[in-house]
Write a structure and sequence with these properties.
about 110 residues; alpha+beta; SH3 type barrels; five-stranded antiparallel beta sheet; 5 strands; elongated
């Protein structure tokens, strides 16, 4: 017996057990997974699908911006690469996945003027 701390009394069989039951633990983990799915996994998958559809829809003459910030006009399409004309007689090959966005027609001309 301690002078400052009272002795702990064990609960009998009628008292609640200290460990939570299996079903409530599974519900907590399921809820955490659901939150992660709704906040992180689902939006990322949606964004990947939209980017893939945009890259698949590329055509000659489209004006695009790459992830690196290059603005150019698509002059040739290959299986995994796109040839961009960034200036007169300056052509660059970039990966299709590096195309960040398709710009409206006339964007390059508007920037030059």
């Amino acid at each position: 017996m301690s002078f400052f701390i009272e002795d702990a009394m064990a609960e009998g069989a009628a008292g609640a057990s200290g460990a939570p039951d299996l079903i409530s633990q599974l519900m907590v983990f399921g809820g955490i997974f659901l939150i992660f799915y709704l906040l992180f996994i689902r939006p990322q998958n949606k964004k990947m699908k939209e980017h893939k559809a945009m890259v698949d829809a590329l055509a000659k003459g489209d004006e695009v911006v790459t992830n690196g910030g290059l603005l150019g006009k698509v002059v040739a399409l290959h299986d995994s690469f796109v040839t961009l004309e960034v200036s007169q007689d300056v052509k660059l090959n970039v990966q299709r996945s590096a195309v960040g966005a398709i710009q409206p027609k006339g964007t390059i001309k508007a920037i030059k003027d």
